[in-house]
Amino acid sequence: MTLNTDVKWFKSTNYNMPQLSNTWGCLIDTLNAVLIDGLSLPVVTSISIDLETKKIITVDFEANHELDLHQVVKISGANSSALNGEFKIVAKTASSITVHSMSIIDSTSGVITCSLPSLGFEKVFSATQKAAYRSKDNNSNQLCLYVDNTCSDGAVETGAKFGKVAIVDNVSNSGELIGIQVPFDPASPSKNFNKIGNYHGWYKWVYAAGHYSYFGIQTFFINSEPSNSNKKFYIVGDATAFLLIVYAATTGESYVFGFGDVDDVNLLSKNTFLLSHNNYIAENSGTGRSLAYESTIGSLNIENRPKCALYFDKSGNQNFTTLKAIPSLMTTVNDAGNMGAIMEASGKFNLLEAHALSGHYYHFPLYMLTTQNRLVGPIPFLKAIAQTITTEGAVITETDGCGYVAIKALDSQGYLLSLGER
Prior knowledge:
With 422 residues, the chain is mostly beta strands. 4% of the residues lie in helices and 44% in strands. The strands form six sheets. It has a twelve-stranded antiparallel sheet with strand order 1-19-20-21-22-24-25-28-29-32-31-30, with no helix packed on it. It is globular. It starts with 7 loop residues before the first strand and ends with a strand. The relative contact order is 0.13.
């Protein structure tokens, strides 16, 4: 198992995790915990070292820690400096974890605490149900994710719950967005954040939605009320980028959202991406929005519908560029008898036999592509697969030593979240 702790992951069932529920504002609480504050864990009752290696440490808690393999924990308060730091979980029971240190540890004395450390972003602006987050990595593009998790004046408060999101240069102390915004419509400058007519927001991270079956497609309406339950989610990221995967409805499909830096193979430098719903949906829309067609990745339709946005264009200028994401292994076979097409997408069929050494998945990068068919680079932390997902949420360790979480993006499609590398 790789012991690098740069990539961290979180899940909705983690101890003290703020939940994504059918309420406005809770997205900010969750992002604060994962990006800024981290999560406290139960009281540590004992800590022991393997006497032979002096590198394998077992931590016992007074209660169920709700941790999982490949999660990164932070140990603090030890008298030994080698024991203070971040470690990846290599084994666990309900009330204990085992981690592997790369340094020899001779002592476990001290007033020791254990926590889930954050990704290490900074919050450059905060207001009620609003915030702006930025990477503290000096090698990043230093752009901000702005999140407005309010229900705009006059909008349907009981409908779908979401954060209105954007990439911005900076935010003033008074909340004014400074510099270039992505997305931005000069003909309607407040389009992304305010209610205009029957439209409430543009780029959205939807985390709670009601659903209906609409011509055989699972569909949500902006003005329909979601169930009053906490939504399952995963977050994986590093100091410069992260993905949020949330099961907003009760149908088993997830949305994949994200923000951060990506290596742009065309620019030969970093670009900044925003993975989001981007349809300008009327609250009184009678047609709804299907989970499949509006999923941020891997939809059964492969038209040039943009699913996300880039900050820099192909010339490196600050120019809003829309993207589409094409799953690996996708082919189209015309089925004249049914006047349709047979799609082979990530996780939809067992296109290849699972590899023999572990019986797990063959996985491949999922590339970002602009609507002008310019290749950008792979979406970080996300892998397309050539087999169907057998158990949603399963945490596996592949033969490369990295950890992965299997997710269902749609009823018939699946992906892997990479827990050890981008």
